[in-house]
From TrEMBL:
Belongs to the binding-protein-dependent transport system permease family. Residues 106-306 form the ABC transmembrane type-1 domain. It is a multi-pass membrane protein. Keywords: Cell membrane, Membrane, Transmembrane, Transmembrane helix, Transport. Gene3D superfamilies: MetI-like. InterPro entries: BP-dependent_transpt_permease, MetI-like, MetI-like_sf, OppC_N. PANTHER family: ABC TRANSPORTER PERMEASE PROTEIN, OLIGOPEPTIDE TRANSPORT SYSTEM PERMEASE PROTEIN APPC. Pfam families: BPD_transp_1, OppC_N. The chain crosses the membrane at residues 36-57, 112-136, 148-167, 173-191, 229-250, 285-306. The gene is dppC. This is Dipeptide transport system permease protein DppC.
Length: 320
């Protein structure tokens, strides 16, 4: 019976599933050996969980005017002499709980960051693939356009686009669709980073034999670009995306700080820092300290993960 079982196992080998293949991969092997990567990932997952569970974890809802009492305004954190035990991180001049506004603001900042990177990714992939695959005049036109945009700072491009939106549609419209507007503004401002990287990858990949074989088989250009070349460019795209999420969050914070981002009734980390900066000389240090600490921690964690991914996908750099 044992021999029959052995023969059956040899004839029908067990194929590992996707999760088993992941656990046996070099990626997971290097990850579990790197304490910085593990710590950064755990903190990042914690941040994501807080953002998703904001209505559950938040002590109050900063959007609900009925739950806000103006008499509770300007309380210091609860552990100080001027604090109130109901408000762990104090309150602002409107009586909103600072901890609640940070949690909801954190949620908005992450949403804008991920959606903006999604738009950057979409534009960058389309433009980068087209420039690298077709070459010639298409490549020259698209890359010169990207070079012109890169000659301006990201923040300058975002400010210009934001001003155009406000002048075209009005301040009320911009405030009503502020999240969508910021996603579009930041996405348009940052796509050249993806386009140039993907173009360089396509230029190297399109000369390989599998691309020539696909052409001989009669596959059309879109199928070759998206089904064959693009999967081989995913490693640099993943690394850039990690870094760009942090950049998008910082861009949103900067625009909100300058008054070109989310309105006051939609707190993001940037708008909270802007409010805190206005009150920095009045002794209300908690209004700027805690949102700034959360923003710095978030960006640091994402950048550490991005650096680790860059090293792992480049064996010449990785020393783990």
């Amino acid at each position: 019976m044992t021999e029959q079982t052995q023969q059956s196992a040899e004839m029908n080998p067990v194929v590992p599933n996707a999760w088993q293949r992941f656990l046996a991969s070099d990626f997971f092997y290097y990850f579990k050996r790197d304490k910085v990567a593990i710590t950064s990932f755990v903190i990042f997952v914690f941040f994501i969980g807080v953002a998703l569970l904001a209505p559950v974890l938040s002590p109050t809802n900063p959007y609900d005017l009925a739950s806000i009492d103006i008499m509770d305004s300007d309380y210091a954190p609860s552990w100080t002499e001027e604090g109130d035990e109901r408000f762990l991180l104090g309150t602002d001049e409107q009586g909103r709980d600072v901890l609640s506004t940070i949690i909801y603001g954190f949620r908005l900042s992450l949403t804008i960051g991920f959606l903006a990177v999604g738009l950057q990714l979409f534009l960058g992939i389309i433009i980068g693939l087209s420039a690298g695959y077709f070459g010639g005049r298409v490549d020259s036109f698209l890359m010169r356009f990207a070079d012109i945009q890169l000659s301006f700072s990201t923040m300058m491009v975002a400010i210009i686009i934001s001003a155009i939106f406000k002048a075209s549609f009005g301040g009320d419209f911009f405030s009503q669709y502020a999240v969508l507007m910021l996603v579009v503004i930041i996405g348009i401002a940052e796509w050249p980073q993806y386009a140039r990287t993907i173009r360089a990858c396509v230029l190297a990949e399109k000369k390989k034999e599998y691309v020539e074989a696909a052409r001989v088989m009669g596959f059309k250009s879109p199928r070759i670009m998206f089904r064959h070349i693009l999967p081989n460019c995913l490693s640099p795209i993943l690394v850039i995306s990690t870094v760009q999420v942090a950049n998008a969050i910082m861009s949103e914070a900067a625009l909100s700080f300058l008054g070109l981002g989310l309105p006051v009734d939609q707190p993001s980390l940037g708008s909270l820092i802007s409010i805190g900066f206005e009150n920095i000389f009045s002794g209300k240090w908690w209004l700027i300290a805690f949102p700034s600490l959360v923003l710095v921690s978030l960006v640091l964690v994402i950048n550490l993960l991005g650096d680790w991914l860059r090293d792992v996908f480049n064996p010449k750099l990785y020393k783990g």
